[in-house]
Specification:
Order of helices and strands of chain A: HHHHHHHHHHHHHHHHHHEHEHEHEHHEEH
CATH class of the largest domain in chain A: Mainly Alpha
Structural class of chain A: alpha/beta
Oligomer: homodimer
Helix content of chain A: 55-70%
Number of helices of chain A: 24
Strand order of the largest sheet of chain A: 3-2-1-4-5-6
CATH topology of the largest domain in chain A: Amino acid/polyamine transporter I
Largest interface: A-B, 89 and 88 residues
Strand content of chain A: 5-15%
């Protein structure tokens, strides 16, 4: 039944060879990998306005009349960000061709810059995957609340609920997730361009009002308009660039020719992203949108363009909420893949490389969902509170990735046509424009590095300090994990130590709690092993000892039953001490402890039994050459001759079946 | 280190024979078992006023001027409750003498009324232990909030935190808990009688003002003053009786002579409880206290008697909060004891009978704390919301207990002096007043039964319905659990089925993931067992198969290595299928699966390994005559010759130690 529920929830499991069929087309790839980047337009403009408003102060009604020039700075800031986006896109397009098997910052850095830069990139990317989920979900919930302000008190609960939902969808596997998520992405694009179009027409015809009845955020202290403040606003807006790298991380998910399909998708994405971001910023300026804790800028645009009660207004918000909630999916594709990559290199626990029944990295998905939920709860699902943690990692990985590409291009560029150096030849179509490409990568690396420094400095006190500390801490952990695996591998390598092939004596101890059918099975197994054995009873309950002794004598009637005192009513410690005593009798042999374990048909019945064998087993793992055997003894539900439900042991069931078979055989004979 | 932390937190563990020394004196017994009953005076008066206020309506300022007569009904209601208390006390005093080994309602009912009444009493008591914790803690936190209203938003968090604290204290064992809790009980009594005394003097000298500046609860709709409403107020006030039965449940905790010490403690408790409850109700009337969500009646009394800023006012609240928080301790003594009793009779999971290292029933304590915390969270730590769930179970158990005592007294009373019938003679000092005692028990049973019906009817819609449904549901669960244990005992009883003593063939399968030092150990053990063996590798990762085969050949070089395909990358299922296939070769033998398990020195290192042996072990428990051996292989931290930390296997460590011993022996020889 458990299997059925799992299958209903997560879909049928897939064969390893079915992996190739999971590849996705360009339109689906755009939906899967671009939803993060596209959806960031839903909050980037708003976060620019939040910072600029600090230099205006006051309430909604007067914000634009007194501070129009200041808030209007959002337009040139957005333009600067668009230029940055073009640079990054061109640079990443080169990466996609150079690394057709997936060129995330981690891989590019590992191949070109060495271990530490790769681990820094890995740490930055993992952090940002988690933050993408937290920010996207929080912003999505903010859109829902703009439409239904009554839900405000439940925003954290809604956000965590949505994370849970996306987690289940993703455990089903990437293809289904892609298909499911294609609809919201295109729905969002359709609604947004419709809204911007209608707004533009109304603005050109002088027919577009400004927004009314918004409860703006209120800055009690008005800050002076400094370069620092403008840079802070620029940093916030740079969140529009988050997610651009997703396609280059996920090239392997595309259909062949992978690189070309992925590169095309990247260019299409940026071509959509720039007009969308600039359009939203332009429209926000037109309608005099104000930053608010209750209503998002997208909602203000929709409400002003269509009017508050218009169904199209609700469709805009629904589309925005959907793409944001789905944008988290980018991370669900990327995080487990990167974690598995790092785990395979021995920098994260090996369990992360384990592929689940649905060809996804189940452990990674669960880890991502847990950490993102934690962040949402801690930050109360506030986008503005999460932003300072966010883009620093993105720009750090941009910088590392493009620096790595510069090194790569230089090495490849210096090769003569046809020459192979460290397997590099195949990885790039050698052409004479390599110097131009190198320049692009260097420009990209420098500009993203500058943005990262700006971000770290301007956002340091409001949260970036945490990421600045977190990333080196993560790198240290990666290195420590790696050292452990290397040490274990070395210890287990069978080098230097003679292989122990000696046949050793085996002393069997049967652990006896009470004497009944299960005990008979234990003795039966011990005798079948044909090594010296004795039974051991730990007297945790002194009142029971005499009964156990008597039962042993009458029902087993052979072998030695040792009673171990246990004044502190414990099981593990007296057993441990007794084994050490047996060890002195036989220092080089194996001590073989046999324990029984009653197995019931249902979980609730299993829960009514002590199940102590597991704990005892765990308690003895530290002892050398002490091995523990668990002998399960099943008790089944059966119907007796009157149709009444009863419990029977495995032995009885066998006896019944044998009797039945014999009776049938006899019936056939006659 | 884990052991050290446990000891620091929970104290040294105790020998079974130290159990007798844990007995407590009368003053400590009063503190431990009476804190529940005494502390209920902190809310009983208030809860009467809450109900009566519904017939007054309006706010604090006018409540007494318009509804003085109605609120004044609290005095006669309190008097009626005091009479009921006297009846119950006399009746329970008889129980204490009749059941010197602890005469909770469960035992009295089991001995005199049969299984079902006993289980009803058990269910009622368990429910009420949980509610005692929830109500006492919630009321205690309400007192704290009266003094510090700023804490209001955190009341649920504070309440849950306090439950956690008391849980830790109680896991240390009953004697320490008793000593620790004696101080607050006597502190509370001292402060309350001082306050009532000062208040009385001020009232007699015409010097006691009425309370001011209270935000009273506001009833929008004024209810008519019906008999039903008065009975509802009476029901609420009956919560003053909760906890009276605690002493009779815990007689065994007292020093010898147990019965006399316990009975004296009970009488002393009631002698304190009645003047306290009546005094508080009288004083509430004098100062015109009003029910409020923000300030408790105790706080209003203290504030009016001493003045708001007076240190004595804060001491009153501190004392009340402390005794209430500590009152939960009654349940921590009673709940695990009763649960263990019912578990020993087979009506609850057997784990509940397990005595922890500190002679308390750790599992029961943990269960109690979890359920009480859940209730506090669900009911938002509101006493008024919890009350309708509360007293119904108390009065149900009172009724059952006293009915049982009536049956008991009738049986014993009919015996001639010295005559023994079903072991009853020793259990009661036979005297000629048994008819009087019988009448007392019958009067007690009838009056508590009437109160229970009144409670169930008047509180039905506000929450009592839940308990009315819960108690039969619990009884059904008890019966089902009991049936399971009986069925298992019957199945295991070795009756009717021939004892299987046959020596059977054993086929050994070694589960191989990779080939290294641990694998050598597995093969070493399998060979030492001297039964036919073969190695099995599950090809969850097809890329690895050839390497494993090659390593097997070069490093082990003997035996058969079977490769089991696993297209779905699973381990358990292919292994399961393979074992079923082996089973057909040898239908009656044992199949012995040997698995390795790497054991690290620290938890974090252990967490970096798959630890899949446990899961695989679990996955095979359902298979008959398939036994699983886990062979641990330890990897230790060591220092190499340069003092650098390295990891070495158990084999290397042994080899090193042997070499060292040899070198030392040689040095000694020369």
């Amino acid at each position: 039944m458990a299997v059925n529920i799992k299958q209903a929830l997560l879909g049928r499991r897939l064969d390893t060879e079915a992996l190739a069929d999971q590849a996705i087309s360009k339109p689906v790839g755009l939906a899967v990998f671009a939803s993060d980047a596209l959806s960031s337009t839903a909050y980037a403009t708003e976060e620019i306005l939040v910072i600029l408003a600090a230099a205006v102060g006051g309430g909604a009604a007067t914000m634009w009349t007194t501070g129009g020039t200041i808030l209007g700075l959002s337009a040139p800031i957005a333009l600067a960000i668009a230029v940055l986006l073009v640079i990054v896109t061109i640079s990443y397009r080169q990466t996609i061709y150079a690394y057709p098997n997936g060129g995330g910052a981690y891989i590019v850095a590992r191949d070109n810059l060495g271990e530490i830069p790769a681990l820094i990139a890995g740490a930055a990317l993992l952090t940002d995957y988690i933050l993408t989920v937290a920010v996207s979900i929080s912003s999505g919930v903010a859109q829902i609340i703009s439409a239904f302000p009554a839900l405000l008190p439940y925003k954290v609960e809604i956000a965590v609920g949505v994370i849970l939902l996306i987690t289940v969808v993703n455990l089903r596997g990437v293809k289904e997730a892609g298909r499911l998520f294609a609809i919201p992405t295109y729905f969002f694009l359709g609604m947004m361009f419709l809204t911007l179009g209608v707004g533009l027409i109304r603005a050109l015809t002088g027919n577009l009002p400004t927004v009314t009845e918004v409860e703006a955020i209120h800055h009690a202290v008005v800050e002076p308009l400094t370069i620092f403040l403008v840079l802070r606003a620029f940093s916030s807006g740079c969140t529009a660039l988050t997610g651009v790298e997703a396609i280059s991380n996920g090239i392997t998910a595309f259909k062949e020719p992978r690189s070309r399909n992925a590169a095309t998708t990247l260019v299409v994405m940026t071509s959509i992203l720039i007009p969308l971001f600039l359009g939203i910023t332009f429209m926000a300026n037109q309608i005099h949108a104000v930053p608010s804790h209750v209503e998002t800028v997208i909602s203000q645009i929709g409400r002003t363009v269509y009017g508050g009660g218009n169904p199209l207004y609700y469709l805009v918000l629904a589309a925005t909420a959907l793409i944001l909630l789905m944008a988290a999916n980018t991370s669900y594709a990327g995080f487990p893949r990167l974690a598995a990559l790092q785990a395979a290199d021995g920098y994260l626990p090996r369990q992360l490389t384990h592929r689940g029944g649905r060809l996804v990295f189940s452990w990674g998905i669960v880890a991502l969902a847990s950490l993102a939920s934690l962040l949402v709860i801690l930050m109360n699902a506030s986008v503005t509170a999460l932003i300072p943690l966010y883009a620093i990692g993105v720009f750090l990985s941009f910088t590392i990735s493009q620096t790595g590409m510069a090194v790569h291009l230089r090495k490849v560029g210096k090769l003569k046509p046809g020459e192979v150096h460290q397997g590099l030849e195949a990885s790039i179509n050698h052409d004479k424009r390599w110097r131009l490409k190198l320049v692009i990568s260097i420009v990209g690396a420098i500009s993203t590095f500058v943005v990262m420094i700006v971000f770290a400095v301007t956002k340091f006190t409001s949260g970036a300090w945490f990421v600045v500390l977190l990333i080196p801490a993560m790198v240290a952990i990666f290195l420590r994990i790696n050292r452990h695996y290397q040490e274990v591998a070395h210890a287990l390598s069978l080098q230097g130590v003679p292989v122990d092939t000696e046949i050793r004596p085996v002393q069997t101890l049967i652990l006896v709690d009470d004497v009944h059918a299960e005990t008979v099975r234990l003795v039966n197994f011990a005798k079948s092993l044909n090594h010296p054995w004795r039974a051991v009873h730990i007297a945790a309950n002194p009142d029971k000892v005499e009964t156990v002794k008597a039962k042993w004598k009458s029902r087993i009637g052979e072998g030695e039953l040792v009673i171990i005192p246990s004044p502190f009513r414990q099981l593990a410690e007296p057993l441990h001490n007794y084994i050490e005593q047996v060890r002195t009798e036989q220092p080089d042999g194996f001590i073989h402890v046999i324990m029984g374990h009653l197995v019931m048909d249902t979980y609730w019945e299993q829960g009514l039994h002590h199940n102590s064998a597991y704990l005892l087993n765990l308690a003895l793992t530290g002892m050398d050459r002490v091995v523990v055997t668990m002998v399960p003894y099943q008790i089944h539900h059966e119907q007796d001759d009157d149709g009444k439900k009863i419990l029977v042991t495995q032995d009885e069931k066998r006896a019944q079946e044998a009797a039945k078979a014999a009776a049938e055989a006899e019936a056939q004979d006659s």
